[in-house]
Amino acid sequence: MTNKEEEQTFEQAMQKLEGIVEKLEEGEVPLEKAIEYYKEGMKLSKHCNDKLKKVEHEMTEIMNEHNEVEPYTLEEEE
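Given the sequence above, the corresponding structure tokens read:
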């Protein structure tokens, strides 16, 4: 991952990921381009997941500092 990609906010990465998903769902993307989009989407997905894990860790640390015992976990939308 390049420095530019690492500096992306969660929201920026999600917006790009949603754009890729829309393009792939349209179904008119040539195979080679679809593979390129897929690879980029996987990188963005990992970036977003890493950001969420970092926030989860930070929230747990903050709660521990305030004597909250339960670890903070992010809940997925249904």
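Residues 31-65 form the longest helix (35 residues). Try to locate this feature in the token string yourself.
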